[in-house]
Amino acid sequence: MANQLEAAISGHTVFIGDLILTEVLRGVANEKLARLVETTLERFNVVRLGGREIAVKAAENYRLLRGKGVTVRGTVDLIIGTWCIAHAIPLLHSDRDFEGMERWLGLKRWQG
Fold first, then answer.
1. Residue 42 belongs to a domain
2. Cα(30)–Cα(78) distance, rounded to whole angstroms?
């Protein structure tokens, strides 16, 4: 995954969602390290993942996936995947929650 991220950074425009930024910073152990991580991530375009349109579509996607027997465990993952689908942006991930979105909703995985 680290190699794929390096390839993405070196040759492509990389976006980081506001909710992803929150999740990354939430996992940092202390404020000093959090500031360092935040400063490092400032080089990426931060995009707003939510809003009414994405929220409604994410809920629709959840119901569609449940009908297929797929349960997305995290609401944030559902929003991330829905935003990527809506904007035709491939997603670099290693999370099984996105696999059902790839299969049934057309989410594209970044393949660097």
1. yes
2. 28
